[in-house]
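Budget justification note: compute hours in this period were largely spent on complex prediction jobs such as the one shown. Inputs:
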Amino acid sequence: MSSGAGILVIGSGMAGYTLLREIRKLDSDVALTLICADSGDFYSKPMLSNALAANKTAEQLVTQPAAAITDSLNVKLFAHTRIEGIDSTARQVFSADQSWSYDALVLATGANPIRLPMAGDGADDMLSVNHLDDYRRFRQQLGNAGHVAIIGPGLIGCEFANDLVASGTQVSIIGPDAWPISTLLPEAGGRFLQQRLEAAGVTFFLGNSVESVNRATNGFDVALKNGDTLPCDLVLSAIGLRADSSLAESAGLDTGRGYRVDAYLQTNRDGIYALGDCAEVNGFNLPFIMPIMFAARALAKTLSGQASAVSYPAMPVAIKTPACPLVVAPPATHESNAWRVETSPFGVKALCYRDESLVGFALAGDAVSEKQALTRTLPAVF
Amino acid sequence: MKQWQCIVCGFIYDEAEGLPDEGIAPGTAWDDIPDDWLCPDCGVTKSDFEMVEI
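Corresponding output:
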């Protein structure tokens, strides 16, 4: 913290902006620079998957334009600028035609949708929505679409399915899983969600997969593994996210599921930190809002001269499927856990135990009312 | 009685209902919630990301 170059943040998502706000609360003088590949306008990514039913345009999702935040926080902004490399010895980052010095560098580059290779002349037309610009394209192409096919019955796929049917669009959702959101929900919870979404108008094709996507006279033909063909107007790919750790190589940064950082959010290189969806913190890549908040507050203290390790309490995740309220607190590991499940016509309460201790839960329907009480009994993540 | 929505995660605070689980009684106005309160769903602070009236 000596050259005066200050703190350089790459990425203007929730992680980058939260960190900048938290640093400014502690230090009104340190030089702050933000470099981002997009416009830098602030929006909430979780809102992308429930903005249709609320009839929000991409513009309406921007809660603060970049200039307004960077002015109020006294941050120097370089928007529409893609960083291509890091020189960790010289403490510089560079784009194709410019370079910047830093005392501390924070990588907050988020994650990108996973795209699997797909056959068919319509494969490249599949959309993924993980960014405001994606959402803008999605809205444009959605137009008056009557039927959307979603590949991937996970958290994001189910949220979009709910949002689309709530705004009057027919939805088919396809995946090899035996029940929706199978990575976070035990079977009873997944089945309950499936029934609620089916009642809302979603059609599931589970234990199935997409073989090809081809252009048709109107829209697309989606060919399924079981031989069925689904005609639809738009295909959404929602099979998951992968941390963007594309700057690792140039700086020799360790990666796992994201840039590997310790509890101080520090990578294996002095002065380089990572935060948010792009980071694997103490072995955990948790691409949700709450971990970002805890990590950003700790890192802001560290960068302001008061070394602070982040600790993650139990952080339940609310899944935005209004047809079926859902809250999950996944266990930290999947080994030797046992689920105990209570079902009623109105909800599912699934508790996950290891050695007689509660280590996670999944609540669906009216059982979500027990979230606070159960959260208090969960162990911290670390 | 008003409702307020977190601009980050969509959580809705209903003044009429309060958040009894967190010790916030039904009928508590948004202005009377402590400044160190965090959104129960996403953990953002009351001051950083304003709730909006809906």
